[in-house]
Design goal:
Length: 222
Amino acid sequence: MKKSALLISIIVSGLLFSSCSNKENKNNSDTNSNSTVKETFSIANLVGEVKTVPDSIIEYLHAQHHSFKVLERRTVPAGYETPNMKYWKNYVKKVEDLPVINPGPGEYVHVMEGQRNGYQNLVIGITETYPGGAPPMHTHEGEESHVLLEGEILYALGDTIFKVKAPYIVNIPPMVPHAFKNIGKKTANLVVIFPTNVWKYDVVDYFPFDKKENHNSPSHKH
């Protein structure tokens, strides 16, 4: 009888110890996963953007579309060899092999520039937009499309603020100042598409998310 009681005591003690250890390991794992925001794809190929002062032609172009002052034009660094498109590998580009830029806090973009990859009229970017991350307010000379399959984004498009939950496609007309901010809890990977062959955008002197916005309203004017 005493042996049975002792055996039961040992088994119960072992189960309690195992339960406590598993709970502690789970808590440590949860803490570690929540304390670090990770990108979906590697951003090891981070490069500095080329920033140039706008000339009078660029300033005139902007003046025809909005009242903001244009601060600078940004592009990716020059220097590349045009692929000969002879083999199937020339038609494939891994996301982790693309150059990465950092337009704003918590915002990175994998840039597929058409002229470097055998396209005639296409540029694609895939963002790593961390929670709270946002690019500066900017414009493009041509139209743009945003595609998001998971997440929630706050947009500033012209003088309108609105938020959208994925999945969605957003149409951004040429020369309309815009920005976006990830208001979700996970990194958002927007796919941005341009019918052009060169990655470039112009930053303006206004940032729409400095003030607290009313996220309960689907849209409102400034």
